[in-house]
Write a structure and sequence with these properties.
The complex is a heterodimer.
Chain A: E1 11-17, E2 21-27, H1 31-43, E3 47-58, H2 64-72, E4 103-111, E5 118-121, E6 125-127, E7 153-157, E8 162-172, E9 183-196, H3 198-202, H4 206-214, E10 221-223, E11 230-232, H5 243-250, E12 257-272, H6 278-298, H7 303-309, H8 311-318
Antiparallel strand pairs in A: 1-2, 2-12, 3-8, 4-6, 4-8, 5-7, 9-12, 10-11
Chain B: E1 2-3, E2 16-20, E3 23-28, H1 31-43, E4 52-56, E5 61-65, E6 72-77, H2 83-86, H3 94-100, E7 103-107, E8 116-117, H4 120-127, E9 137-138, H5 148-151, H6 161-174, E10 190-194, H7 205-209, E11 232-238, E12 249-253, H8 254-258, E13 264-273, E14 290-292, E15 316-317, E16 322-324, E17 326-328, E18 336-337, E19 344-353, E20 359-369, E21 376-379, E22 384-391, E23 398-399, E24 407-409, H9 420-433, H10 449-458, E25 466-467, E26 469-470, E27 482-491, H11 529-538, H12 541-553, E28 554-560, E29 566-573, E30 579-584, E31 594-600, H13 601-612
Parallel strand pairs in B: 2-5, 8-9, 11-24, 12-22
Antiparallel strand pairs in B: 1-3, 2-3, 4-5, 6-7, 6-9, 10-13, 11-27, 12-24, 13-20, 14-17, 15-19, 16-18, 19-20, 21-22, 21-27, 23-26, 25-27, 28-29, 28-31, 29-30
Helix pairs in contact in B: 9-10
The chains are: A alpha+beta, B alpha+beta.
Chain lengths: 319, 624
């Protein structure tokens, strides 16, 4: 195996790209890389979220901790997060989270003065930095109702109740707290390869074919109206739920269909919370994955690397 | 009915006695027609609905009850069912049906006289002359034979009866929810409130009847009610998870908990009263009069207290702090201190007086708790479990849609407990969450399994609720399918934070000098006889000696080797005028052969107590 190269050249094919949604294919790589990417997107891509709340006045029905927790979960636009510092290793402020390199300050003042219930929302949060603001979903689509344009509700106030606070947002990662996770959904599936045994399929009557097609909960197969043949309409709709295979067995036709998962191509679905764009989330994840690998490579030639990584260290030097 | 007359000439034989609320008020000749007439009157509203009429044939009595505190339940009256059709304008409210005599209230004793059909379909059997009985009444719904807490369990009729009892008697009592609408003006000694209570996905006939009347049915048939249940809908996977959910423990998703799932608020109130200066009656002694106020206390910190003796709102009190500062005029400290396990933020301070005019104050402390290892949770099917591990989101198996479970329960919880209801609940819940319209899980009239599986199939899921998942650590596809679905889970009030018990050194009992037992007093855990037997069986003698002697009540005393009696340490005069202190045998009047031995203080105490009764214990000693 000396000198054998394990180098691969993964390719990405983007299928769909929206601000908060992204679907792409990842080819010629294996599950370890696909899953590493997924894990990094969930837990290690940094964002900015409210981390420290100083409450001045709170006469609402919710207690201070409750409001602080709700504030923390509000997604903030974090395009700057990659270049920000973690407040724990910020030299400018000794890590107390008060400087412009590692923190953003927010203010909230709300008081209900009339008999109508006042909704305090994320729009009432005033940021000291215009690049870090609560996410705004109102412009992302046209069909959104009016009520959703008012931002994320923090608390509702009745007449005479007041909420006044100062909040500091910091950079963090999803591993420390879920509020820093930029990912709403990150998932992938193996691309399926579906082979219908046409000879066996021809032995079925139209009714049986229809029954078999209907046994799949998702619309993977259909019957061609003209030729009355079963065709695969959407292989990716197949959720590997084995329903059609079980149905074929129940019909006494095992092997009617064979479905393999392609081990080297994946279909990713990424949805973001709005903190960063879905496309940026993927790019940031790749950056972070690279940084992590760099950290391994740095100690490549040293003796410690052998102790630390064992065979892997030797392998890295060889390849 | 004839009125009872106060003479001896009226003949009572062959007549039936009539009692009203236990008083004999009259007699009647034909009790059947009398009772029938009375019941007809009740159905026509000539007699109040809540009157109970019981005809006791054996005792030849008719008992009528109109007093308070009886249990009544509504039943349909079979002979009046035709009147429903006659109702004009479609007024089918409960009250109007009651007024028309279609529904009537039946008490516990009267129920014995009724022949009640369990459901409407039993009445139709009667029409076809299949049924052997002639029904007089009919249940409104088959699940109405259960109480509230049992009738809101989905698919309760699929569960083992004992599991239904566990849920309805125990877990529903201990579950946290939103128990009151006026928490801000209440002062309960201990309350728990769930941050985000939810209504379950499924509905039952009884859960539809919950809440204030007057709420209209909203769009999509979702009832916009203010009533919340005491739990949350969690995505539950039935799977093993690295062995962290063995023996009824659960694995939970840390990200879900950080997002607020099962988070709760706990309020504990401390009450303190003072002597009233203007109190009527005997005048208290001036010196002993106790008042609120801040004094430098020897027993705890008073930093958070204002001058009036109460902490300011929002103060963070730790264990050992004074909650209420109280002192007597004499200077004696009567402050209330937090026990070593208690802490919290001050929620409110209430000053008030009770009906006798005694002033008191209540200080409420608030704590916010996220679920932690050892907290107890339960589904609605008597399946309780403690939290065994908090796993990160990325390590959980994920489905093709990217769904990750909130809770992972062990599959071994199901076969012996016989609670398929929980699995049906999850399967039905999954269908409802995906927009299915079959929402009812009322006990005894539940959907067929086929209806549940068909709904799942229509929603694009595998019929039996199982899903293909990918390993969250490696990204590989897992060979077996995993059953997953939203299940209603409750957080129970038993939390590990209230139960942790540990100590190395700490307070000892003043009499026996052994460690105290109570958790509140920072006591230890008893090393009992059976534990001792265990160590003996292992032959771990040194360990046993350490447990029961060195770390318990080790003590020393003096023995005179000449007479084998205890030699006490005394002060005595020696020739030369000096006084010295030391062990001295009063029997031998010498210090010659006195030795010091290690004994448990308990043994020494026994010897001393016996000695005081005039019994002496002899100790034979040898060099060890």
């Amino acid at each position: 195996m000396e000198g054998a190269s394990y180098q691969r050249f993964p390719t990405v094919k983007i299928r769909e790209l929206k601000d908060d949604y992204c679907k792409f294919e990842l080819h010629s790589t294996d599950a370890s890389l696909a899953n590493a990417l997924r894990r990094v997107m969930i837990a290690e891509v940094p964002t900015v979220a409210i981390d420290l709340v100083e409450i001045e006045v709170n006469s609402s029905v919710l207690n201070d901790e409750f409001i602080a927790h709700r504030l923390g979960l509000i997604p903030l636009t974090s395009d700057r997060a990659m270049s920000m510092r973690f407040s724990r290793d910020c030299d400018a402020c000794d890590g107390d989270g008060q400087c412009e390199f590692c923190s953003v300050e927010f203010h909230l003042r709300a008081k209900c003065i009339n008999d109508q219930t006042l909704d305090v929302t994320s729009k009432d949060l005033y940021s000291s930095d215009h690049t870090v603001v609560p996410v705004d979903f109102s412009d992302s689509g046209s069909g959104i109702e009016n009520s959703e344009q008012r931002g994320i509700i923090i608390v509702k106030l009745r007449r005479g109740q007041e909420l006044r606070l100062r909040a500091i947002a910091r950079k963090g990662i999803g591993k420390d707290h879920a509020k820093w996770s930029p990912a709403a959904t990150v998932t992938f599936m193996y691309e399926p390869e579906i082979h219908i045994n046409e000879d066996m399929m021809d032995t079925l009557s139209l009714e049986e074919k229809q029954g078999w097609v209907d046994s799949s909960p998702t619309k993977v197969f259909d019957i061609d109206a003209a030729s009355q043949q079963v065709v695969v309409v959407d292989p990716e709709a197949y959720a590997y739920d084995d329903e059609v295979i079980k149905k074929a067995e129940a019909m006494g036709k095992p092997g009617l269909v064979e479905i393999y998962a392609k081990e080297d191509s994946f279909i990713f679905t990424v949805e973001s919370t709005g903190a960063i764009k879905a496309s940026q989330l993927v790019l940031n994840a790749i950056d972070i994955l690279k940084q992590k690998l760099d950290a391994v490579r740095l100690s490549e030639d040293t003796v410690e690397a052998d102790e630390q990584f064992g065979e892997l260290g030797a392998h890295m030097r060889g390849g | 009915m004839e009125k009872l007359v106060d003479d001896t000439s009226t003949l009572l034989s062959g007549k039936v006695k009539v009692f009203l609320d236990g008083n004999w008020v009259g007699v009647c000749g034909d009790s059947v027609s009398f009772v029938a007439a009375l019941r007809r009157k009740r159905r026509r509203k000539e007699v109040p609905h809540q009157v109970e009429i019981k005809r006791d044939e054996q005792h030849r009595e008719v008992r009528i009850f109109s007093d308070a505190g009886r249990i009544l339940r509504p039943l349909l009256v079979v002979e009046n069912l035709g009147k429903i059709k006659a109702s004009k304008g479609g007024d089918y409210s409960f009250q109007s049906l009651l007024d028309k005599g279609v529904i009537e209230f039946i008490g516990t004793e009267e129920e014995e006289d009724c022949r009640t059909a369990w459901g409407i379909n039993y009445l139709f059997m009667e029409n076809e002359a299949k049924a052997p009985v002639k029904y007089t009444h009919c249940e409104l719904d088959m699940s109405f034979l259960l109480g509230l807490s049992a009738a809101i369990i989905p698919f309760a009729n699929h569960d083992h009866a004992r599991r239904v009892l566990y849920q309805s008697e125990k877990h529903s009592q201990q579950a946290m929810g939103f128990n009151t609408t006026n928490p801000n003006i209440r002062v309960d000694t201990n309350t728990h409130q769930l941050y985000y209570p939810q209504r379950p996905l499924f509905r039952t006939m009884v859960s539809d009847c919950l809440g204030k009347p007057g709420y209209p049915l909203g769009h999509n048939g979702i009832v916009p009610r203010a009533e919340y249940f005491n739990g949350q809908c969690a995505i539950v996977a039935v799977n093993v998870h690295l062995g962290y959910n063995q023996e009824d423990s659960l694995v939970m998703n840390r990200a879900s908990l950080e997002r607020g799932m099962f988070r709760s608020e706990h309020i504990r109130s401390y009450k303190a009263d003072v002597d009233n200066k203007e109190a009527v009656g005997k005048k208290p002694k001036f010196e002993d009069s106790v008042n609120f106020g801040k004094v430098q206390s020897k027993i705890g910190r008073v930093d958070s207290l204002d001058d009036d003796g109460f902490p300011f709102i929002g103060a963070n009190l730790q264990n050992g702090d004074i909650v209420v500062g109280r002192c007597a005029e004499s200077g004696a400290d009567h402050s209330i201190k937090l026990k070593h396990t208690e802490r919290g933020m001050v929620q409110k301070v209430v000053l008030s007086a009770n009906d006798e005019g005694k002033n008191f104050a209540v200080v409420s402390l608030r704590q916010v708790r996220t679920p932690c290892l050892g907290d107890k949770f339960s589904s609605m099917h008597g399946q309780k479990g403690v939290l065994g591990f908090l796993e990160s989101q990325e390590n959980f198996p994920f489905t093709i849609q990217g769904i990750v479970p909130d809770i992972v329960v062990n599959p071994h919880a199901f076969p012996s407990r016989q609670t398929p209801g929980q699995l049906l609940e999850a399967a039905l819940g999954k269908g409802i969450a995906c927009g299915g319209l079959q929402k009812y899980a009322t006990p005894f009239s539940t959907l067929s399994v086929d209806a549940v599986t068909d709904q799942l199939h229509r929603a694009g899921f595998s019929r039996w609720g199982s899903e293909r998942v990918y390993n969250g650590r490696t990204g590989e596809m897992i060979h077996s399918l995993v059953f997953m679905g939203p299940t209603f889970y409750q957080r129970l009030t038993h939390m590990s934070e209230d139960k942790v018990k540990f100590r190395n050194t700490g307070p000892v009992h003043p009499l026996t000098r052994q460690p105290v037992a109570d958790r509140k007093r920072f006591g230890g855990i008893k090393f009992g006889e059976m534990e001792r037997d265990c160590l003996i069986a292992h032959g771990a003698a040194a360990n046993l000696h350490e447990r029961l002697f060195t770390l318990s009540d080790s003590s020393q005393m003096h023995i005179c080797r000449k007479c084998n009696n205890i030699a006490n340490v005394i002060q005595r005069a020696v020739p030369g005028g000096r006084k010295i202190r030391g062990p001295y045998c009063r029997f031998c009047e010498s210090v010659e052969e006195i030795v010091r031995v290690n004994v448990p203080y308990g043994a020494k105490l026994l010897a001393q107590e016996l000695f005081s009764m005039g019994i002496t214990m002899k100790f034979e000693t040898e060099l060890g």
